[in-house]
Design brief:
homodimer; alpha/beta; eight-stranded mixed β-sheet; 13 helices
Chain lengths: 334, 334
């Protein structure tokens, strides 16, 4: 009997611990970096109504799909997209192998440090920079290049690693949704293979839940081993109309919640909210010129114009970064 | 104290139940439809070595990706691919809207019931049939069509629903891998949107873990709502060299285990086993003419020739369906 009693004690201790941690989880604020307000409340109300079994708006866990844009929604996108800064660094790194770039735009300007002139060629110039710097390696080599860059590169003005220029309130939101059995996906106009090497560590989103733009690949044998070689040919553009197409291709069911910050996310939010049953759409509105950047209707990066009108007309949640967020970025890592 | 005691009793009851079900799970055979033998043992040995923390071959759960071909690996593919039987039924259903088919091959032959003649045109004829029957609807309409068909169609000779012509030993294998924290994916030459409507119910594999061939889609507004319209244009062919490309695009990391049955799966098995650390490759070999079908090197459907040689040369697991499987299909549903 003594043995049985001691077993009981161990069991009861285990239960007390289990219950007390449950109690802590219940009472702890899941969104501590969000100020009280309409935006925060709309998130909590939506999660509450879709997770209560028996209520009319209940959604089974398998269907709790939430999609997030990346640039400007989960991390900063100013003064230009992080991936473009990566591509510019790659041009510099690859320049010794490309003597012809000295006389060829947009590379010549980039190598002289004149980014503005290099990008004057618009989308065509950007596409050329991306193709030259993102193709020509195997997928594994490219992954290594991205990992090394993201570990060492610093934001031009903030001087912090880009992985620390993610939005702390959005990290909490991702974790809160997952704690409520949502499956969280990134659906970004950015390159799928530029994001996958670090999204799991930074956002808790594994590679198979990242949807993005892509270039084609080709299977080849190198030294008797199969490799995938990245080709300088666009495969898929995951922006605007492309977002619902990418969601359909990669996820295969309609999300019930979508989070974006620009007109490039509008079709994703429309697609998400056009489904039956409870739906949630949220725009992050960049209103904080002091702690981050303030931009919307007239910005060339992350323009939010039509989307802002539609959000107001349809009653989507608008996050006012200045008002709604206590802090923007997480504390620096030691 | 009385209250405390009764709480203890409840707790202890809960624990006894929990422990006893754990004990059952531990001792119950996870692969009851598999005969003892090399194939079964190789699976169990692989799972054991990658799941034991501290051992050199341990693989963290997030990286336990297992990919499965569908036709001939998870369900029967004779006398022809199920999706082709679906397409033929669709030709009949759509014929009233296409009076021109009466004089146009391959449709004319199909409508006369002469499948052999219709398919004499080879891949081109099949592609024409698939495009005419798989495009032109919205993605939601197509999902409904597939769901209705799969619920009512019967196999031409076995007279059973196709969803009951799945391999019981493979269902057990899928469940066994998932119980060991593997994430299971389908990577099939079949149409991604032909599989997704039923894979979750039949295999426990959700839509977002299905990779397959696809046609293009286009975002349109219909009655003020966004829809995705299916276009008669091939987007991606997920077969042979396409399988590693599809895996890279949809999953973004290399699987550690791959399961197939034909030369169309060879590149997937090569890609999987070319990674570092413990790897597992398995071919289902159709050897049972009585309970299923016997075919390999000379079959036009599911040919296993080069793959058979490579499996033997490299020591991959070969499942001899006749010897290794106690039963082929699950019992009929009531």
């Amino acid at each position: 009997m003594a043995r049985k009693h001691s077993l009981f004690s161990v069991l009861s201790l285990g239960f007390v611990l289990a219950f007390s941690s449950l109690a802590t989880a219940r009472t702890a604020d899941p969104l501590p970096s969000w100020n009280d307000g309409k935006a925060r409340q709309s998130i909590i109300d939506f999660v509450a109504k879709v997770t209560k079994e028996g209520l009319p708006d209940f959604v089974p866990p398998a269907e709790r799909i939430a999609v997030f844009d990346n640039d400007g929604t989960l991390w900063a996108e100013q003064p230009m997209y992080v991936q473009l800064l990566f591509a510019i660094d790659r041009v510099k790194a690859l320049a010794p192998q490309h003597p012809e770039w000295k006389d060829k735009e947009p590379f010549a300007s980039l190598l002289k440090g004149d980014v503005k002139n290099a990008l004057a060629g618009g989308e065509h110039a950007i596409l050329e920079i991306v193709m030259e710097t993102h193709a020509g390696t195997t997928t594994e080599e490219f992954e290594t290049i991205v990992k090394e860059w993201i570990a060492t590169a610093r934001h031009p003005t903030a001087k912090r690693p880009y992985t620390e220029m993610v939005y702390q309130p959005m990290l909490e939101l991702l974790a809160y949704l997952r704690a409520n059995d949502f499956k969280t996906f990134i659906v970004s106009g950015g390159g799928i293979e530029f994001m996958r090497p670090w999204t799991e560590e930074v956002y808790g989103i594994p590679p198979e839940q990242v949807v993005g733009s892509s270039i084609k690949t080709k299977l080849e044998m190198q030294d008797g081993k199969p490799v995938l070689v990245r080709l300088p040919e666009l495969d898929f553009m995951d922006d605007k109309q492309g977002k619902p197409i990418g969601i359909n291709s990669h996820i295969g069911r309609r999300p019930i919640a979508a989070f974006g910050n620009s007109d490039g996310d509008l079709q994703m939010l429309q697609w998400t909210t056009a489904g039956e049953g409870p739906r949630f759409a949220l725009y992050v509105h960049h209103t904080d010129a002091e702690r981050e950047w303030a931009y919307d209707r007239d910005s060339s990066i992350g323009r939010l114009d039509k989307g802002l009108d539609e959000a107001m007309a349809k009653g989507w949640t608008l996050v006012d970064m200045k008002q709604d967020w206590k802090i923007i970025y997480p504390a620096a890592k030691k």
